[in-house]
Target: 2-dehydropantoate 2-reductase
Amino acid sequence: MEILVYGIGGVGGYFGGKLAEAGHEVSMIARGEHLKEIQKHGLEVESIKGNFKVKPKKATSDVSEVPTPDLIILGIKSWQIPEVAKELEPIIGENTIILPLQNGADNYEKLIQILPEKNILAGLCFIVSFIEVPGKVKHASYEPKIVFGEADNLQSQRVKKIQDILDEAGVENNVPENIQLEIWKKFLFICTVSGIGGLTRVPIDRIRSSEYLHEMMINTAKEIIEVAKAKNIPLTEKHLEMVFEIINSQPEGTTASTQRDIMNGKPSELENFNGYIVKEGDRLGVEIPVNRYIYECLKPMEEAARKSRE
Model:
């Protein structure tokens, strides 16, 4: 199977590396010094599950140089989806499968605005990993897992085929009964901690130890659940409890990637997290004052970060 991994950061680097290690034809899209190191020496992955090094079939920044892929795994940030989808359009074959693994609740919807709906799956992943130095990805914690499926939850042959490939590569995976619910369950966690982390600029343990900030997180999550319900996503009080079990179990010093991007002055997923809840809340008539406060406070920094990238 011809596999293209677009974005060789923590997510794409780990999962793409595992597929290459298993012997699949894996091409990789990367940029800058990271790309140069991969081209010269291959991709190194340092992992709590065992270190490995792979040489991709092709490492490039130009999608026109890769063979027509059977499977494209998107290892980019959610805000990059529209731009990357347009770039991928010329190499999408009749049966190419596109698997997004981004945080966020509307990645599938963004993709089908640009690419054929029949080519696109819905998905997410769990992993804590990042580029440590050019050419090297570090998987620091969490059992890596990919959760995916057809948007209509049909148990299709192509979904089973990808399951087999991931099993071969030793990547834990799951095709749930309701992929949209799974996407929103993760979104509930990541959106609840990311924006408030960007505002306070302290780790999760410091946020949860403050009675005021803990209550603010609860209200953030409750608003997200109300927006989900208005979209017929069956999030419940049980899912709220599960999210706070995860929040309370995070080790000292833990920060979310979006929080780190905000703190480092980089473009972040703010628009796709709290910004998305504000937009959908307004559209659906759901009151979202806490998410709006977080979003509006962070928006000037986000705009400055994006302007500096132009």
Remarks:
- DSSP finds twelve helices and ten strands in the chain.
- The two ends are 37 Å apart (CA to CA).
- The CA atoms of residues 2 and 67 lie 7 Å apart.
